[in-house]
Amino acid sequence: xxxxxxxxxxxxxxxxxxxxxxxxxxxxxxxxxxxxxxxxxxxxxxxxxxxxxxxxxxxxxxxxxxxxxxxxxxxxx
Length: 77
Description:
The chain has helices at about 1-15, 40-45, 50-65, and strands at about 20-25, 30-35, 70-75. It contains three helices and three strands.
């Protein structure tokens, strides 16, 4: 569910939604979500001074804590 949340949010922000991919890496205590977007859409996902990325991470953190999980978002080039 968390992967779909990040994917939906990212696709809503970018110009090339077909190039959005989210890979879920399960750890012992933490799940890492790796978000990849087109190079020209990277700025839209990060936002001014990282505000958009911070907002996505806040939503992800709230959703993860509701499921009693710990989740981290990494935005990759």
